[in-house]
Amino acid sequence: MSRTVVIAGGGPTGLMLACELRLAGVEVVVLDKLPEAPQWSRAQTFQARSLESFRQRGLSWFDDYGQARTYNFGLLELKDIIAPELVAKRVPQRDVEQRLEEHALKLGADVRRVHEVVGLEQDEDGVTVEVRSASEEYRLRGAYLVGCDGGSSTVRKLAGIAFPGTSSSVNGITGDVDLINPNKDAYGPRLTQGGVYAQIPMEAGVHRLTTMEFDVVPPSRDLPLTTDEFAAAVKRVMGIDVQLGERHLLSRFGSATRLAERYRAGRVFLAGDAAHIHLPFGGQGLNTGVQDAINLGWKLAAAVQGWAPPGLLDSYHEERHPVGARLTLNTQAQEALLHPLNEVQPLRDLFTDLLQFEEVRDYLVDVLTALGIRYPAPGGEEEQARAHPLLGRRVPLVDLETPDGPSNVALTLHTARGVVLDTSGRGLAAAAAAPWAERVDVVEARPAEGIPEGVLLVRPDGYAAFVDPDGTDGPGLREALGHWFGEGRPQSAVRA
Question: Which pLDDT score is estimated for 493?
Fold first, then answer.
């Protein structure tokens, strides 16, 4: 059986997945039909959970980037009423892609540009992928194929995975342009009876302009987009005349909202926009795709390396499909807060009042940042109700004091292995986890604020898989290790 994972799509999701797999030592081939990463950035926002996930791998590329100019839910501003560290960073998508591609190549990924998937056949042992390049067509054998190839995903269609949802009713245009007559009174996103207008200064006289018009049939995405059409849209929405210079990168977008019926079909998986599309608010698509990749990567690696326990690969759909559903729901809710303005203004006023309540703000921030995700407990809803509140949630990246000196939770996850974090002082966890020493590290530390004292099993993606506040439940720890990391090896075999 092949031990290679084939990834269709070299955007942020596909490249993040390639990096995760290479950290685990899995051979990866990334196929992308474009000759190079796009220089224009559709997304400009990097959410708090994605920043945390990058820190878990020692990637602090974007920590010093500035905050987003606006951080809102349906254009209801949150930036000034939430903790500063929760506000998204202003990170162009091109920076994310370029950094990830460089990192993937450094880790040994095989990235093939101007290569695209045109067919696939799967059997019990693997997937045969038909590939077309600029010069030839060839067949590539892999253990698994992951479609990270966007909203019109070829892999999804070839795998026969349904993509139900709604069509677009929005005519959206966005672009980076030379704005000859910038109107400072129009900076930031504005909501009018005609739609949405955003004018945000960037660098060297360039502005990011965006218009959204509702209840219209959007033009074909293949129809060439001109500055005249863009200027006319600005006039209709905002009532102002704009003069656009020669430099411009323009793109259409809409509000089509669809969620793949399933994220897995045998040995074929979907991630990123191939699994979910929606109105582009706050870079949530990019950030959710990165999280898809981090969830899937270690599980695919376990399967390729032969130690994945039963059900581990199925847990990808079980955990990430509800996240995709929540993503599409929240973007549809945001759209509903925008139009028609004369009818939704009372709803916007009510939401503004609700934002004065901390619980409401926390909920919306959890939705936007992905910090509030809780994956289901293995025992189902009843087990979840009895479980420790941290079970299934992200483990905060707090500082640690270990026998070897200062550390932190992020540092323990740099190698994308599982971690047994023992702050109980009892020292019992190391013996219980010994049969899994090839897959899981044991870290002993002093109790730290932000995480429960005791024994904590942290998955490679940074989520809590077991919580023992007493530090005495060896059988429970071994059961959790077996559930997530497969059968342990006898200690004599490990020592040998």
Answer: 47
